[in-house]
Amino acid sequence: QCYRDLALVSRDGMNIVLNKINQILMEKYLKLQDTCRTQLVWLLRELVKSGVLGADGVCMTFMKQIAGESRAGPGPPGAARVAEEGLFLGFFCREWVLKSSILIAMAVYTYLRLIVDHHGTSQLQALRQKEVDFCISLLRERFMDCFMIGRDLVRLLQNVARIPEFEQLWKDIIHNPQVLSAQFTGVLQLLQSRTSRKFLACRLTPDMETKLLFMTSRVRFGQQKRYQDWFQRQYLSTPDSQSLRCDLIRYICGVVHPSNEVLSSDILPRWAIIGWLLTTCTSNVAASNAKLALFYDWLFFSPEKDSIMNI
């Protein structure tokens, strides 16, 4: 009833409502109680069902909050449930999601990452299977929309290559690319395409992003230990949070590009943060993936299209 009244009195196409939801998602989400989170997801679904202009932007902000179960340790409770709600958003409003290429690509990027984190208990197995089906259907039906992710799509698909559905997809990518799209010529075409910053940023919650940007713009070299300890306690302390290091390193390489002024000052340099992230890896697989994340742009660097700051 409240939603109906809101829709009736709104004179700006729900613009104020969307801005407010965005603000809550960005700044207050971690503090919301479960009831409020459920209501927020419900409201988001209603906005999508009503085809409100700009709701896709709010959905992308919501996806940033779908942290993997690995980060549910000291972070917000029920990350897996949030993922399920986000997935439901995709299934429930599938036709609507398919109207927006960027939303398709963002959803695939998000859920390919979550599949890696959602392993273990039987409860998560069911969720993981839903995520696999969701990603495979979008990759097969709308491959060129997913292509806009660029070379990081290959990196993410490598991490899930052992799952039977993705194994079959890999065979098609390598041996029969035309099955996926007439415009797709093969894996090299993907690797030569740079990944946009908006994808690299979408796997960090707004809170992580703020803290990381603070460290790379305000903290002096030599005084970083307490900030790093805090960050580690908050986000990197669970055994499963190993996979987050790749996301952080890709973000630092592709998004955090300090000005010459900062580079020549005594502000904490990017290499020091990446070095710290690499030394805190306790799993060999995570360490290998983190190193690959660091050298990924270097392997396929093209002076015409890529930024030197990515190396």
TrEMBL record:
PANTHER family membership: INTEGRATOR COMPLEX SUBUNIT 3 (PTHR13587:SF7)
GO cellular component: cytoplasm
Pfam families from the UniProt entry: Ints3_N (PF10189)
Domain of life, per lineage: Eukaryota
Gene behind this protein: Ints3
Protein's name in the database: INT3 protein
Ranges in coiled-coil conformation: none
Segments forming domain Integrator complex subunit 3 N-terminal: 2-311
